């Protein structure tokens, strides 16, 4: 997880810089490229997770990592909008193959550890978040240093790192690292059976629709943050340090956030996290008018956004496992990312369009922030109304899990 994030954050946070400064694309085109990257990744997680449920984790992980190597090379040598689109779609497709397999395997292990009284699954998810962020401390810092070299060579370096990761997975990933079932020895389902268990689970589908806005909000770090840094300070040089600082915040704060979420309960933690994320988008508009305080507004936004994520994501992932009845977890976690990817694609294009309106003088500089705050706040309110008093408690979730998959 550390090395995956080093390679990812070496390239993706600086993609907007490359698109704007070297390829000279318009804001809407940058939003399209970044949205397609997220949609091809998150949007295809359902397919990748289903394949992991059907065929097991090992072959799908190896295929995904190999494709990521090809994708970063293609991205580095792309010189036009269409070739950039091809590159980012390949980058996303690679992650759609390997990420759900890893995520659902961790969910299976977490279920077993909780049943054995070792630790709660939300704690395992929190530890996973912390380990992932270790890599995202190093990646942005290296990416900031490498801004002085052409983007092409940064992408090639990331491809080389993923080539080494492929060798490591081929050597150490066990053959039985399967996510096809929550119980050892269970027969792997067909793809049709996998898809059916997801698509007929109405409570699960409604839950992931409400949770999709947190992915939309988080991915604005790749569009709004570079754009606003350039508008506020005239430079995107601080971009890498924003990502590094956010990663340190997660490493330090994820443990306490998980403990707080356990005391609050799943419902309060998820709704509270969404509310904090919505509130974070109200911080920059209060300070953007003053150039001396604009940077502080962005720092406050990034910090509060991550606090909301730390509070809601571990219990959200636990709820998904329970709503799935602990079966076909790759497809269920994949569907969460697919819905979130679609929301991010549409949202990123619309946010880029709003920024074009700002440049044309047809709306205020606060408009993108207020629009995003309203979307996430609506999701938080709907989650509170839908979840009821105890609908998201572990006991209630266990009762509502589909009987055929318990």
UniProtKB/TrEMBL annotation:
Domain of life of the native organism: Bacteria
GO molecular-function terms, A-Z: transmembrane transporter activity
Pfam families, alphabetized: MFS_1
Residue ranges crossing the lipid bilayer per the database entry: 6-34, 55-75, 81-102, 155-173, 194-218, 238-257, 269-288, 294-313, 333-355, 367-386
Protein's cellular compartments: Cell membrane
Listed InterPro entries: MFS, MFS_dom, MFS_trans_sf, MFS_Transporters, Tet-R_TetA/multi-R_MdtG-like
Key words of the record: Cell membrane, Membrane, Transmembrane, Transmembrane helix, Transport
Domain Major facilitator superfamily (MFS) profile: residue ranges: 1-391
Name of the protein in its database record: MFS transporter
Species assigned in the record: Pseudonocardia broussonetiae
